[in-house]
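Researcher: I've been going back and forth with a colleague about how Glycoside hydrolase family 30 beta sandwich domain-containing protein might be arranged in three dimensions. Neither of us has a model we trust, so I'd like an independent prediction. The organism is Cohnella cellulosilytica, in case that matters for your notes. Sequence below.
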Amino acid sequence: MVENAKEQGKAEVWWSSEAEPRSREWFARPFDIPYRLERQADAEITAPSPAEGETLAIFPERLHQEILGIGTSMEESTVFNLARMSESKREEICRSLVDRERGAGFNLIRITLGTSDFTARAFYSYNDLEPGETDFELERFSIRKDIEYGIIDVLRRLRELQPELLFFASSWSPPAWMKTSGSLMRGQLKEGEQYTRTLAKYYRMAIQAYREQGIELYAITVQNEPLLEIDYPSCYMSPQRQTELIAALREELDEHGLRTKIWIFDHNFADAWAYVSPILNDAAGRAAADGIAFHDYDGEPTVMRELQCAYPDLSIHLTERSLWGVEAADRFVQYFRSGASSYNAWVTMLDSRIGTHQWVGTPDPTLIVQDAEAPERFWMTPEFYLTAQFSKFVPRGARRADSSPGSAETVTHVAFVNPDGTVVAVVVNRTDRPQPFRLLCEGRQIRAALPPKTAGTYRWRRAPADTD
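Model: Here is an independent structure prediction for Glycoside hydrolase family 30 beta sandwich domain-containing protein. You can compare it with whatever you and your colleague have in mind.
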């Protein structure tokens, strides 16, 4: 049995903190950040003893969901801004995103099928026709613009830098000729099996076209925010229509030997039950679906836990949300404690003019900001480092460990057990004062304290098995 603190080892410690959270002044200039994913002195692992502050109990033998990945998006706005930079600067940013040793270690990237609202280009799909034309055989299908605009090249380079990187894709709109609006904006998919099967074929062809370019798509969501019609690429899609579509898409994928997973919904927590249950209570919908995707613009993440309980064979994914400061870090804690297997930020880099995009509002700060007047210059916002507090230390295959939640008045946290046997705890101090706490795990204790408005990551080896 272990007798003293030295033999029981130490825990590695990193800190990141907020600065001017959500302020659009980040687009004008960088601010000082107290901690930027900075290594601190190791914390001693000792025998348990009384300690001041919150006690965070971790039970690594009680494991929950397996983690697929943590990352961001590579929408066309980001790619357009990358194209304005030299090759060396593009390389620097790409490494900062996906390199686990020298960067954030992102391993899951969201892409768009055709344009979204965050694009510097005219809206397009992969099958744009003149008004009144149709193409049910999809003879004019092409991802040529994705190639010409450099999207494919950026994805390839990210994959080269991080061979474990996975991509999933979301569509903002079917081609305009398939829709009631006759436009990529607003409208619905036209009624009838012919349109359903053609759109399913369109998605299958997109998956194959990306594969031909060397990019495998791990998963697809067939409609981004299906309850929204707005003046950028969008499409209302009822649960019944999505059920029909994913069933047809499953047939297409199976027929062509494609293993891309289908994640349903892809919208807000508040609407999840009403949308998801009709799909998954239908035999065809249940057979076609592999996971449930969520956005966090309305409602609470606890609904993910409810739906995971209701449909335990499906994985849970937070596919879109960008937040700011330690409130964001605490929200990430809530996502994972509520069963999420992945998290992706939305929009990686805009420039100092808050461009280039076609969203209907004014965006908040992105993970990276490019100087519009000097495109070679860029800076990271605190959100880059706060997200990395999770992504850099929690690899694919990690499992969330059962643990006590902590408190918003002290510290909150989430814990994981990694494939290499290390335990990782991400602890968040949202308060305006330093917070002492202790981590209790397998008969051992780590006493620590976090500065105000700071997130800390603690990583250590599990206790050796007792052979007495």
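Researcher: What would you highlight for our discussion?
Model: I'd start with this: The longest strand covers residues 54-66. After that, consider the following. The CA atoms of residues 413 and 427 lie 4 Å apart.
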